[in-house]
């Protein structure tokens, strides 16, 4: 029942948010300037909308939630904590609004545990983020999940604070991997 209800609600929400742009003035506010001189006849120049919304520039704007790319996990867990749900929801919304964008999720683990265990745990973490994104409307074809295990630590000290930084799922977009 839940699998049927979520897509129906999302499609209703997206339909309600749609706007009615015209050919000369698209819905996003991008202006089209047609040039009719010389060899460039028929070529249009498009001015991108501001980055304040869900544009590509929002991915690198430190004031935007989309610039945050890591979902942190508890020790020996692959459950997304409530504090990271808004982050996952924002990235899912971005993927829905940008269907040509691709994402790679890299699951990571701290150095404790065997190499095989950490690879498996990293994969479960990456898959948990991928599943959350797809349940929120992103297409499965847009997202790939891989495990790096303990091979890409963010911190190398043998402290709990350092281990916590290494228990994460990193979201990378096209061009970043």
From TrEMBL:
It comes from the Bacteria. Gene3D superfamilies: OmpA-like domain. It is found in: Cell outer membrane. It is a lipid-anchor. Residues 60-177 form the OmpA-like domain. One of its GO terms (cellular component) is cell outer membrane. GO terms for biological process: cell division. The keyword Chaperone does not apply. Its main location: membrane. CDD domains: OmpA_C-like (cd07185). Keywords: Cell cycle, Cell division, Cell outer membrane, Lipoprotein, Membrane, Palmitate, Signal. HAMAP family: Pal. Part of the Tol-Pal system, which plays a role in outer membrane invagination during cell division and is important for maintaining outer membrane integrity. The Tol-Pal system is composed of five core proteins: the inner membrane proteins TolA, TolQ and TolR, the periplasmic protein TolB and the outer membrane protein Pal. They form a network linking the inner and outer membranes and the peptidoglycan layer. Belongs to the Pal lipoprotein family. This is Peptidoglycan-associated lipoprotein. It comes from Aromatoleum tolulyticum.
């Amino acid at each position: 029942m839940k699998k049927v209800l979520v897509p129906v609600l999302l499609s209703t929400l997206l339909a309600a948010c749609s706007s009615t742009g015209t050919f000369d003035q698209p819905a996003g506010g991008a202006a089209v300037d047609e040039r009719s001189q010389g060899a460039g006849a028929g070529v249009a120049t498009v001015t991108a909308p501001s980055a304040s919304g869900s544009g590509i520039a929002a991915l690198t704007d430190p004031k935007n939630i989309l610039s945050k790319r890591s979902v942190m996990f508890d020790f020996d867990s692959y459950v997304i904590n409530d504090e990271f749900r808004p982050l996952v929801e924002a990235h899912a919304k971005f993927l829905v609004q940008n269907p040509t964008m691709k994402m790679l999720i890299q699951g990571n683990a701290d150095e404790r545990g065997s190499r095989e265990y950490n690879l498996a745990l990293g994969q479960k973490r990456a898959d948990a983020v991928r599943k959350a994104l797809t349940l929120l409307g992103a297409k499965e074809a847009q997202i790939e999940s891989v495990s790096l295990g303990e091979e890409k630590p963010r911190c190398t000290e043998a402290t709990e604070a350092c281990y916590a930084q290494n228990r994460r799922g990193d979201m990378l977009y096209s061009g970043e991997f």
